[in-house]
């Protein structure tokens, strides 16, 4: 059984102790904004130069990387951990994604300074802005992205109407 809260607090403690700036993105950010989809993993974005330091602190929990990860959707530097049954992806914030609409690889333009401060699982952290989150999910259009977008678009519209 996975313990998302414990895993989240564990990795945030390490990042804060090492003074590594980070941004929460992906499904956990979507859940912060109101998506009800089940969480697959915890996505955290950092500078590529910080990934080796993080890896040295979490060596026994590494299940992938740190190395280049390329699939049909992403091209990025990635470190994947498993702690208390919960997967944690720590990725280079300057990655590439495959835009399903243009059929081209492009910079994810991740977080171009667009984030908010919020509380997730009891921790005050920086979270990818809802606009940035929706933007990359609209480009990827995986099943999980479509589920998130269906919920986030309603929430976003309600926010901007009031």
Structural shape: globular
Termini Cα gap: 40 Å
Helix content: 25-40%
Radius of gyration (CA) equals 15 Å
How many β-strands, per DSSP?
Answer: 9
Percentage of β-strand residues = 25-35%
Low-confidence stretches: none
SSE class: alpha+beta
Query: Residue-averaged pLDDT, rounded?
Result: 92
CATH architecture descriptor: 2-Layer Sandwich
Number of helical stretches of at least 4 residues: 5
Number of domains: 1
Indicate the CATH topology.
Beta Polymerase, domain 2
Largest sheet: 7 strands, mixed
Order of helices and strands: HEHEHEEEEEEEHH
CATH class bucket: Alpha Beta
Written account of the structure:
By secondary structure, this protein is α+β, with helices and mostly antiparallel strands. The protein has one domain: Beta Polymerase, domain 2 (2-Layer Sandwich), CATH 3.30.460.40. It is 36% helix and 34% strand. The strands form 2 sheets. Strands 1, 2, 3, 4, 5, 6 and 7 form a 7-stranded mixed sheet that branches. A two-stranded antiparallel ribbon has the order 8-9. Helix 4 (130-140) packs antiparallel against helix 5. It is globular. It starts with a helix and ends with a helix. The mean pLDDT is 92.
């Amino acid at each position: 059984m996975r313990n998302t809260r414990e895993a989240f607090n564990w990795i945030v403690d390490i990042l804060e102790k090492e003074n590594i700036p980070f941004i929460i993105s992906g499904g956990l950010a979507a859940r912060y904004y109101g998506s009800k989809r089940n969480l697959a993993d915890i996505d955290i974005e950092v500078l590529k130069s910080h990934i080796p330091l993080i890896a040295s602190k979490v060596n026994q929990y590494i299940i992938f990387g740190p190395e280049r990860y390329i699939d049909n959707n992403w091209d990025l530097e990635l470190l994947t951990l498993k702690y208390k049954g919960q997967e944690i992806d720590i990725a280079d914030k300057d990655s590439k994604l495959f835009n399903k609409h243009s059929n081209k690889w492009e910079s994810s333009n991740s977080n171009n300074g667009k984030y908010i401060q919020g509380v997730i699982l009891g921790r005050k952290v920086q979270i990818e802005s809802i606009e940035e989150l929706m933007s990359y999910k609209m480009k990827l259009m995986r099943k999980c992205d479509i589920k998130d977008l269906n919920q986030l678009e309603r929430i976003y519209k309600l926010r901007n109407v009031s």
